[in-house]
Amino acid sequence: MDRRQFLKSGAAASAAFSGLALLSGCRQRAHAITITPPNLAPDPERLLDLPRGFSYSVISTEGDRMSDGLVTPGEFDGMAAFDMPDGLTLVRNHELNPRQNGRSAFPDQSATDAGQELAKFYDPGQDGAGLPGGTTTLVLDPSTLEVRQHFLSLAGTYNNCAGGPTPWGSWLSCEETTGRAGGRMSRDHGYVFEVPAAARELVEARPLRALGRFRHEAVCVDPRTGIVYLTEDAYDASLFYRFIPYEPGNLAGGGCLQALKIANASGFDTRNWNDQSIAQGDSLRVEWMDIEQPDNLHSDIALRHIAAGAAHFTRGEGLWFGDNELYFTCTDGGAERLGQIFRYTPSPHEGGAGEPDSPGRLELFIESPGDGAMENCDNLCIAPWGDLIVAEDGPSEQYIRGVTPGGRIYTIARNAFSEQSGYSEFCGPCFSPDGSILFVNVQSEPSRTFAIRGPWHALGG
Q1: How do the domains of the chain map onto residue ranges?
Q2: Cis peptide before 124 (omega within 30 of 0)
Q3: 390 touches 39 (CB < 8 A)
Q4: Which of 75-89, 107-121, 135-149 shows the lowest per-residue confidence on average (mean pLDDT)?
Q5: List of E strands, 346-458
Q6: Half-sphere exposure of 130 toward its Cβ, with a 13 Å CA cutoff?
Q7: Which among 88, 89, 90, 93 has a CA at the least distance from the CA of 78?
Q8: What is the pLDDT of residues 386-414, one digit of tens each?
Protein backbone atom coordinates (compact mmCIF):
# COMPACT_ATOMS: atom_id res chain seq x y z
CA MET A 1 0.00 0.00 0.00
CA ASP A 2 1.51 3.34 -1.03
CA ARG A 3 0.89 6.67 0.70
CA ARG A 4 -1.87 7.70 -1.71
CA GLN A 5 -3.83 4.50 -1.11
CA PHE A 6 -3.30 4.75 2.64
CA LEU A 7 -4.55 8.33 2.76
CA LYS A 8 -7.50 7.51 0.51
CA SER A 9 -8.58 4.64 2.77
CA GLY A 10 -8.25 6.77 5.91
CA ALA A 11 -6.96 3.74 7.84
CA ALA A 12 -5.21 0.58 6.78
CA ALA A 13 -5.88 -3.05 7.68
CA SER A 14 -3.25 -5.44 8.97
CA ALA A 15 -2.76 -6.69 5.44
CA ALA A 16 -1.08 -3.34 4.69
CA PHE A 17 2.01 -4.81 6.33
CA SER A 18 2.22 -7.68 3.82
CA GLY A 19 5.87 -8.15 3.03
CA LEU A 20 7.03 -6.85 6.41
CA ALA A 21 6.74 -10.17 8.24
CA LEU A 22 4.21 -9.02 10.82
CA LEU A 23 1.97 -12.09 10.89
CA SER A 24 2.19 -12.25 14.65
CA GLY A 25 0.37 -14.08 17.38
CA CYS A 26 2.13 -13.47 20.71
CA ARG A 27 -1.16 -13.21 22.60
CA GLN A 28 -0.59 -15.71 25.40
CA ARG A 29 0.34 -14.41 28.80
CA ALA A 30 3.98 -15.23 29.63
CA HIS A 31 3.79 -16.42 33.26
CA ALA A 32 7.29 -17.87 33.54
CA ILE A 33 10.46 -17.82 31.51
CA THR A 34 11.95 -21.09 30.29
CA ILE A 35 15.30 -21.22 28.52
CA THR A 36 16.39 -23.58 25.77
CA PRO A 37 20.21 -23.85 25.93
CA PRO A 38 22.07 -22.63 22.81
CA ASN A 39 22.84 -25.35 20.27
CA LEU A 40 24.91 -23.56 17.66
CA ALA A 41 27.44 -24.91 15.20
CA PRO A 42 30.79 -23.03 15.15
CA ASP A 43 31.28 -21.00 11.98
CA PRO A 44 34.60 -21.82 10.27
CA GLU A 45 34.67 -18.22 8.99
CA ARG A 46 34.25 -17.00 12.58
CA LEU A 47 31.51 -14.55 11.68
CA LEU A 48 28.15 -16.02 12.69
CA ASP A 49 27.37 -19.21 14.63
CA LEU A 50 23.95 -20.66 13.74
CA PRO A 51 21.88 -23.78 14.54
CA ARG A 52 22.64 -26.80 12.36
CA GLY A 53 20.71 -26.67 9.12
CA PHE A 54 20.95 -22.86 8.92
CA SER A 55 23.24 -20.85 6.67
CA TYR A 56 24.11 -17.22 6.05
CA SER A 57 25.45 -14.98 3.33
CA VAL A 58 27.03 -11.55 3.72
CA ILE A 59 24.96 -9.07 1.71
CA SER A 60 26.90 -5.90 2.43
CA THR A 61 30.09 -4.89 4.22
CA GLU A 62 31.29 -1.51 5.42
CA GLY A 63 33.74 -0.07 2.91
CA ASP A 64 32.16 -1.69 -0.19
CA ARG A 65 31.84 0.63 -3.18
CA MET A 66 28.17 1.48 -3.76
CA SER A 67 26.50 1.97 -7.15
CA ASP A 68 26.36 5.76 -6.60
CA GLY A 69 30.17 5.80 -6.39
CA LEU A 70 30.29 6.37 -2.64
CA VAL A 71 31.64 4.03 0.04
CA THR A 72 29.29 1.93 2.18
CA PRO A 73 29.30 3.78 5.52
CA GLY A 74 29.72 1.95 8.84
CA GLU A 75 27.80 1.57 12.10
CA PHE A 76 24.93 -0.41 10.54
CA ASP A 77 21.85 -0.27 12.77
CA GLY A 78 18.05 -0.40 12.33
CA MET A 79 16.65 -1.79 9.07
CA ALA A 80 13.52 -3.01 7.29
CA ALA A 81 12.75 -5.03 4.17
CA PHE A 82 10.20 -4.04 1.51
CA ASP A 83 8.77 -5.82 -1.52
CA MET A 84 9.23 -3.39 -4.42
CA PRO A 85 8.62 -3.88 -8.18
CA ASP A 86 12.33 -3.69 -9.04
CA GLY A 87 13.53 -5.95 -6.24
CA LEU A 88 13.67 -6.77 -2.56
CA THR A 89 14.61 -3.50 -0.89
CA LEU A 90 16.45 -2.95 2.39
CA VAL A 91 16.60 0.51 3.96
CA ARG A 92 19.34 0.62 6.62
CA ASN A 93 20.42 3.13 9.24
CA HIS A 94 23.98 4.24 9.98
CA GLU A 95 24.55 5.33 13.57
CA LEU A 96 27.34 7.80 12.82
CA ASN A 97 28.13 10.98 14.75
CA PRO A 98 29.98 14.09 13.53
CA ARG A 99 33.33 12.70 14.75
CA GLN A 100 33.11 9.62 12.52
CA ASN A 101 33.68 10.96 9.03
CA GLY A 102 36.25 8.22 8.50
CA ARG A 103 33.38 5.69 8.48
CA SER A 104 31.04 7.82 6.36
CA ALA A 105 30.03 7.40 2.72
CA PHE A 106 32.69 9.99 1.82
CA PRO A 107 35.67 9.24 4.10
CA ASP A 108 38.65 11.59 4.07
CA GLN A 109 36.84 14.22 2.03
CA SER A 110 33.89 16.56 2.25
CA ALA A 111 30.45 15.71 0.92
CA THR A 112 30.89 18.43 -1.70
CA ASP A 113 34.18 16.94 -2.89
CA ALA A 114 32.37 13.60 -3.12
CA GLY A 115 29.86 15.19 -5.51
CA GLN A 116 26.94 15.25 -3.11
CA GLU A 117 24.03 17.69 -3.22
CA LEU A 118 24.34 19.50 0.10
CA ALA A 119 20.85 20.95 -0.42
CA LYS A 120 19.46 17.46 0.27
CA PHE A 121 21.47 17.04 3.49
CA TYR A 122 19.65 17.89 6.70
CA ASP A 123 22.84 19.32 8.16
CA PRO A 124 25.65 20.24 5.75
CA GLY A 125 27.82 21.09 8.75
CA GLN A 126 29.44 24.36 9.72
CA ASP A 127 32.29 23.47 7.37
CA GLY A 128 30.11 22.25 4.50
CA ALA A 129 31.58 18.76 4.82
CA GLY A 130 28.20 17.19 5.66
CA LEU A 131 27.34 15.16 8.74
CA PRO A 132 27.93 11.41 8.21
CA GLY A 133 24.71 9.90 9.62
CA GLY A 134 21.85 8.73 7.44
CA THR A 135 20.55 5.69 5.58
CA THR A 136 21.57 3.54 2.63
CA THR A 137 19.21 1.58 0.41
CA LEU A 138 19.97 -1.80 -1.14
CA VAL A 139 17.91 -3.29 -3.99
CA LEU A 140 18.39 -7.06 -4.16
CA ASP A 141 17.48 -9.79 -6.58
CA PRO A 142 14.82 -11.64 -4.52
CA SER A 143 16.07 -15.05 -5.65
CA THR A 144 19.85 -14.72 -5.54
CA LEU A 145 20.14 -11.71 -3.18
CA GLU A 146 22.61 -10.18 -5.62
CA VAL A 147 22.84 -6.43 -5.04
CA ARG A 148 21.31 -4.64 -8.03
CA GLN A 149 21.61 -1.14 -6.62
CA HIS A 150 23.11 0.38 -3.47
CA PHE A 151 23.17 4.08 -2.64
CA LEU A 152 23.05 6.78 0.02
CA SER A 153 19.35 7.59 0.58
CA LEU A 154 19.38 10.00 3.58
CA ALA A 155 22.27 12.23 4.61
CA GLY A 156 23.40 14.93 7.00
CA THR A 157 21.87 13.40 10.11
CA TYR A 158 23.29 12.28 13.46
CA ASN A 159 23.25 8.85 15.16
CA ASN A 160 20.53 7.20 13.07
CA CYS A 161 19.89 4.33 15.44
CA ALA A 162 16.62 2.50 14.85
CA GLY A 163 13.28 3.52 13.38
CA GLY A 164 10.56 1.48 11.75
CA PRO A 165 8.62 0.68 8.56
CA THR A 166 5.29 2.31 7.70
CA PRO A 167 2.20 0.70 6.13
CA TRP A 168 2.57 3.03 3.15
CA GLY A 169 6.03 1.79 2.18
CA SER A 170 8.62 4.01 3.83
CA TRP A 171 11.27 3.80 6.53
CA LEU A 172 11.24 6.18 9.50
CA SER A 173 14.84 6.83 10.54
CA CYS A 174 15.44 8.12 14.08
CA GLU A 175 18.22 10.30 15.45
CA GLU A 176 19.33 9.14 18.89
CA THR A 177 20.61 12.49 20.15
CA THR A 178 19.57 15.90 21.43
CA GLY A 179 22.67 17.57 19.98
CA ARG A 180 22.41 21.31 19.39
CA ALA A 181 23.89 23.46 16.67
CA GLY A 182 27.52 24.27 17.37
CA GLY A 183 30.92 22.80 16.64
CA ARG A 184 30.55 20.89 13.39
CA MET A 185 26.74 21.05 13.47
CA SER A 186 24.83 23.87 11.85
CA ARG A 187 21.38 22.67 13.01
CA ASP A 188 19.73 21.11 16.07
CA HIS A 189 19.24 17.33 15.98
CA GLY A 190 16.98 14.71 17.56
CA TYR A 191 14.32 14.17 14.91
CA VAL A 192 12.65 11.48 12.81
CA PHE A 193 13.09 11.46 9.01
CA GLU A 194 11.11 9.58 6.36
CA VAL A 195 12.75 7.64 3.51
CA PRO A 196 10.42 6.13 0.87
CA ALA A 197 11.42 2.54 0.09
CA ALA A 198 10.73 3.32 -3.58
CA ALA A 199 13.31 6.15 -3.67
CA ARG A 200 16.24 5.32 -5.94
CA GLU A 201 18.44 8.30 -5.14
CA LEU A 202 19.29 10.54 -2.20
CA VAL A 203 16.08 12.04 -0.76
CA GLU A 204 15.75 15.50 0.70
CA ALA A 205 16.09 15.20 4.49
CA ARG A 206 13.09 16.83 6.16
CA PRO A 207 12.66 16.48 9.94
CA LEU A 208 9.22 15.43 11.17
CA ARG A 209 9.22 18.01 13.94
CA ALA A 210 5.75 17.19 15.26
CA LEU A 211 7.07 13.77 16.37
CA GLY A 212 9.20 15.57 18.95
CA ARG A 213 12.88 16.23 19.48
CA PHE A 214 14.49 13.75 21.88
CA ARG A 215 16.78 10.70 21.87
CA HIS A 216 14.60 8.81 19.42
CA GLU A 217 15.15 5.07 19.09
CA ALA A 218 12.38 3.16 17.33
CA VAL A 219 9.00 3.77 15.71
CA CYS A 220 6.04 1.62 14.70
CA VAL A 221 2.67 2.42 13.11
CA ASP A 222 -0.72 0.88 13.83
CA PRO A 223 -2.04 0.11 10.32
CA ARG A 224 -5.65 0.38 11.50
CA THR A 225 -5.42 3.92 12.85
CA GLY A 226 -2.18 5.40 11.50
CA ILE A 227 -1.13 6.20 15.09
CA VAL A 228 2.64 6.20 15.53
CA TYR A 229 4.35 4.82 18.66
CA LEU A 230 7.88 5.85 19.66
CA THR A 231 10.58 4.83 22.15
CA GLU A 232 13.22 7.03 23.75
CA ASP A 233 16.72 5.69 24.45
CA ALA A 234 17.64 7.86 27.42
CA TYR A 235 19.46 6.42 30.41
CA ASP A 236 17.49 6.27 33.66
CA ALA A 237 14.51 8.37 32.52
CA SER A 238 12.61 7.97 29.27
CA LEU A 239 8.99 7.98 28.10
CA PHE A 240 6.88 5.85 25.80
CA TYR A 241 5.14 8.04 23.23
CA ARG A 242 2.36 8.00 20.69
CA PHE A 243 1.71 10.47 17.88
CA ILE A 244 -1.82 10.93 16.58
CA PRO A 245 -1.54 12.52 13.12
CA TYR A 246 -4.14 14.97 11.94
CA GLU A 247 -4.19 12.99 8.69
CA PRO A 248 -3.23 9.28 8.90
CA GLY A 249 -0.17 8.60 6.78
CA ASN A 250 0.82 12.27 6.52
CA LEU A 251 3.31 12.67 9.37
CA ALA A 252 4.59 15.99 8.06
CA GLY A 253 1.08 17.42 8.40
CA GLY A 254 1.24 17.65 12.18
CA GLY A 255 -0.57 15.96 15.02
CA CYS A 256 -0.61 15.43 18.76
CA LEU A 257 2.37 13.91 20.62
CA GLN A 258 1.53 12.18 23.91
CA ALA A 259 3.20 10.16 26.67
CA LEU A 260 1.88 6.97 28.27
CA LYS A 261 0.62 7.22 31.85
CA ILE A 262 -0.52 4.36 34.09
CA ALA A 263 -4.11 5.00 35.19
CA ASN A 264 -4.39 6.19 38.80
CA ALA A 265 -0.61 5.97 39.31
CA SER A 266 1.21 9.25 38.76
CA GLY A 267 4.83 8.83 37.68
CA PHE A 268 4.62 5.02 37.82
CA ASP A 269 8.15 3.53 37.76
CA THR A 270 8.32 0.53 35.42
CA ARG A 271 12.08 -0.02 35.81
CA ASN A 272 11.95 -2.42 38.81
CA TRP A 273 15.44 -1.29 39.79
CA ASN A 274 14.90 -0.89 43.51
CA ASP A 275 11.39 -2.24 44.08
CA GLN A 276 9.24 -4.45 41.90
CA SER A 277 6.55 -2.07 40.73
CA ILE A 278 5.31 -4.33 37.94
CA ALA A 279 5.54 -8.12 37.86
CA GLN A 280 5.93 -10.24 34.77
CA GLY A 281 2.45 -10.79 33.34
CA ASP A 282 0.91 -7.75 35.05
CA SER A 283 -1.42 -5.83 32.75
CA LEU A 284 -2.13 -2.20 33.65
CA ARG A 285 -4.70 0.26 32.31
CA VAL A 286 -3.15 3.30 30.67
CA GLU A 287 -3.97 6.90 29.90
CA TRP A 288 -2.18 9.36 27.62
CA MET A 289 -1.06 12.90 28.41
CA ASP A 290 -0.15 15.62 25.93
CA ILE A 291 3.53 16.50 25.57
CA GLU A 292 4.30 20.10 26.40
CA GLN A 293 7.12 21.74 24.41
CA PRO A 294 7.85 18.75 22.15
CA ASP A 295 10.87 20.55 20.70
CA ASN A 296 12.55 19.88 24.07
CA LEU A 297 14.63 23.05 24.25
CA HIS A 298 16.28 22.08 27.53
CA SER A 299 16.60 18.32 26.84
CA ASP A 300 14.41 17.54 29.86
CA ILE A 301 11.29 16.18 28.18
CA ALA A 302 11.20 12.92 30.15
CA LEU A 303 11.90 14.45 33.56
CA ARG A 304 9.25 17.14 33.06
CA HIS A 305 6.54 14.69 32.11
CA ILE A 306 7.40 12.02 34.68
CA ALA A 307 7.03 14.76 37.30
CA ALA A 308 3.65 15.55 35.76
CA GLY A 309 2.52 11.90 35.93
CA ALA A 310 3.87 10.03 32.89
CA ALA A 311 5.15 6.46 33.31
CA HIS A 312 8.88 6.20 34.01
CA PHE A 313 10.86 3.92 31.66
CA THR A 314 14.59 3.47 31.04
CA ARG A 315 16.35 3.15 27.69
CA GLY A 316 13.39 2.36 25.47
CA GLU A 317 14.72 0.73 22.31
CA GLY A 318 13.31 -1.86 19.86
CA LEU A 319 9.64 -1.53 18.87
CA TRP A 320 7.47 -3.52 16.45
CA PHE A 321 3.75 -3.72 15.70
CA GLY A 322 2.05 -7.10 15.45
CA ASP A 323 -1.56 -8.29 15.44
CA ASN A 324 -3.30 -5.38 17.19
CA GLU A 325 -0.50 -5.19 19.74
CA LEU A 326 3.06 -3.93 19.87
CA TYR A 327 6.22 -4.91 21.75
CA PHE A 328 9.08 -2.70 22.90
CA THR A 329 12.27 -3.23 24.86
CA CYS A 330 13.88 -1.36 27.74
CA THR A 331 17.53 -2.33 27.48
CA ASP A 332 18.61 -1.92 31.10
CA GLY A 333 15.24 -2.32 32.80
CA GLY A 334 14.52 -4.98 35.43
CA ALA A 335 15.95 -5.97 38.79
CA GLU A 336 19.12 -7.32 37.12
CA ARG A 337 19.23 -4.36 34.70
CA LEU A 338 19.44 -6.86 31.85
CA GLY A 339 16.32 -5.76 30.01
CA GLN A 340 12.54 -5.87 29.83
CA ILE A 341 10.09 -6.44 27.00
CA PHE A 342 6.70 -4.74 27.28
CA ARG A 343 3.52 -5.43 25.34
CA TYR A 344 1.02 -2.66 24.64
CA THR A 345 -2.49 -3.48 23.45
CA PRO A 346 -4.26 -0.40 22.06
CA SER A 347 -7.80 0.50 23.00
CA PRO A 348 -10.50 -0.47 20.46
CA HIS A 349 -11.05 3.30 20.38
CA GLU A 350 -7.37 4.29 20.47
CA GLY A 351 -7.02 8.04 20.20
CA GLY A 352 -10.79 8.52 20.05
CA ALA A 353 -13.58 9.68 22.31
CA GLY A 354 -14.39 6.16 23.56
CA GLU A 355 -10.85 5.43 24.73
CA PRO A 356 -11.38 6.27 28.44
CA ASP A 357 -14.16 3.68 28.67
CA SER A 358 -12.02 0.92 27.14
CA PRO A 359 -8.38 1.96 27.63
CA GLY A 360 -5.25 0.38 26.24
CA ARG A 361 -3.18 -1.89 28.48
CA LEU A 362 0.52 -2.21 29.22
CA GLU A 363 1.94 -5.61 30.18
CA LEU A 364 5.42 -6.60 31.33
CA PHE A 365 5.88 -9.53 28.96
CA ILE A 366 9.47 -10.55 29.78
CA GLU A 367 12.04 -9.42 32.35
CA SER A 368 15.44 -11.07 31.95
CA PRO A 369 16.48 -12.98 35.10
CA GLY A 370 20.12 -13.33 33.99
CA ASP A 371 22.50 -12.96 31.07
CA GLY A 372 22.06 -16.66 30.25
CA ALA A 373 18.48 -15.87 29.29
CA MET A 374 18.84 -12.50 27.57
CA GLU A 375 21.41 -9.75 27.96
CA ASN A 376 20.25 -6.19 27.29
CA CYS A 377 17.55 -6.66 24.66
CA ASP A 378 17.68 -4.02 21.94
CA ASN A 379 16.19 -4.08 18.41
CA LEU A 380 13.41 -6.57 17.79
CA CYS A 381 10.93 -7.72 15.20
CA ILE A 382 8.10 -10.25 15.05
CA ALA A 383 8.65 -13.47 13.11
CA PRO A 384 6.10 -14.81 10.61
CA TRP A 385 5.25 -17.60 13.07
CA GLY A 386 4.56 -15.17 15.93
CA ASP A 387 7.73 -15.24 18.05
CA LEU A 388 9.75 -12.19 18.97
CA ILE A 389 13.22 -11.98 17.39
CA VAL A 390 15.43 -9.97 19.74
CA ALA A 391 18.93 -8.57 19.21
CA GLU A 392 21.22 -8.20 22.23
CA ASP A 393 23.44 -5.23 23.05
CA GLY A 394 25.37 -6.09 26.19
CA PRO A 395 28.94 -6.15 27.52
CA SER A 396 29.65 -9.83 26.81
CA GLU A 397 28.93 -12.31 23.99
CA GLN A 398 26.09 -11.15 21.78
CA TYR A 399 23.22 -13.31 20.56
CA ILE A 400 19.99 -13.13 18.64
CA ARG A 401 17.27 -14.67 20.80
CA GLY A 402 13.79 -15.88 19.99
CA VAL A 403 10.92 -15.57 22.48
CA THR A 404 7.78 -17.64 22.10
CA PRO A 405 4.31 -16.40 23.17
CA GLY A 406 4.57 -18.62 26.24
CA GLY A 407 7.89 -17.15 27.37
CA ARG A 408 10.39 -19.74 26.10
CA ILE A 409 13.70 -18.13 25.13
CA TYR A 410 15.88 -19.83 22.51
CA THR A 411 19.01 -18.85 20.58
CA ILE A 412 19.20 -18.12 16.86
CA ALA A 413 22.72 -16.76 16.34
CA ARG A 414 25.95 -15.74 18.04
CA ASN A 415 28.31 -13.00 16.87
CA ALA A 416 31.44 -15.13 16.37
CA PHE A 417 33.39 -12.12 15.10
CA SER A 418 33.39 -10.82 18.69
CA GLU A 419 36.44 -13.01 19.28
CA GLN A 420 38.39 -10.73 16.96
CA SER A 421 36.81 -7.31 17.42
CA GLY A 422 35.33 -7.30 20.92
CA TYR A 423 31.68 -7.74 21.76
CA SER A 424 29.51 -5.96 19.23
CA GLU A 425 25.75 -5.69 19.08
CA PHE A 426 23.30 -7.17 16.62
CA CYS A 427 21.00 -4.61 14.99
CA GLY A 428 18.06 -4.29 12.64
CA PRO A 429 16.54 -7.79 12.53
CA CYS A 430 13.79 -8.04 9.91
CA PHE A 431 12.35 -10.72 7.63
CA SER A 432 12.09 -10.81 3.87
CA PRO A 433 8.58 -10.30 2.45
CA ASP A 434 8.04 -14.05 2.07
CA GLY A 435 9.30 -14.74 5.61
CA SER A 436 12.08 -17.08 4.50
CA ILE A 437 15.11 -14.88 5.22
CA LEU A 438 16.12 -13.08 8.40
CA PHE A 439 18.25 -10.03 7.66
CA VAL A 440 20.37 -8.70 10.51
CA ASN A 441 23.29 -6.33 11.00
CA VAL A 442 26.40 -6.65 13.15
CA GLN A 443 27.80 -3.27 14.06
CA SER A 444 31.44 -4.21 14.75
CA GLU A 445 34.06 -2.68 12.46
CA PRO A 446 33.62 -3.56 9.68
CA SER A 447 29.82 -3.58 9.92
CA ARG A 448 28.08 -6.35 7.98
CA THR A 449 24.56 -7.20 6.84
CA PHE A 450 23.72 -10.93 6.94
CA ALA A 451 20.94 -12.91 5.29
CA ILE A 452 20.08 -16.04 7.33
CA ARG A 453 18.17 -19.00 5.90
CA GLY A 454 17.07 -22.23 7.50
CA PRO A 455 14.21 -24.39 8.85
CA TRP A 456 12.57 -21.63 10.90
CA HIS A 457 9.61 -23.87 11.79
CA ALA A 458 11.97 -26.00 13.90
CA LEU A 459 12.84 -23.13 16.24
CA GLY A 460 9.58 -21.53 17.33
CA GLY A 461 6.40 -22.79 18.92
Answers
A1: 1-10+57-207, 257-434
A2: no
A3: no
A4: 107-121
A5: 361-367, 377-382, 388-392, 399-403, 408-415, 426-431, 438-442, 448-453
A6: 28
A7: 93
A8: 999 999 998 889 999 999 999 999 999 99
